Please model this.
Amino acid sequence: MYKFQKGKRGMLIFAQSLFLLFILGLSIFTIEQGNSVYSELQSNIVSPSGNSEGAVLEYANNMDASDWIFGFLMAPVAFLTAFPQMSAAIASIDQSLDGWLLHFYTVGFVEYLELFGVLIFYRISFRKKMASRIVSTIYTKTPLYNIIK
Model:
């Protein structure tokens, strides 16, 4: 566990945990903002034909690979440049799924918060144990004249 905490894998796990905490927390914030502040924009998300689910499925069937790649790459840009519209869209998706999207984001956020807390706890406890081990090694195994030099 000590090697894991101090090694490259440990830093990767810390970075991944922080990144996922940020993404999941931002998703929860986005859905809540879409349900409260930007709720008036949710009525504009319905397609012109009136049947939003059928229109979305029909549009998705007509998309090719380049459209999917472009949409995947442009979603973060749209999230930053048009937050109210993206927030309302994600909140309407959550409402159409009866709140399960927000539920899964919340569960994931809590799980990664627990993981991050355990990692921090072990890092602090290993630091204290290693410091006490170094101090006890210095005072018990080395002769006094080597410490004074």
Notes: The mean pLDDT is 79.
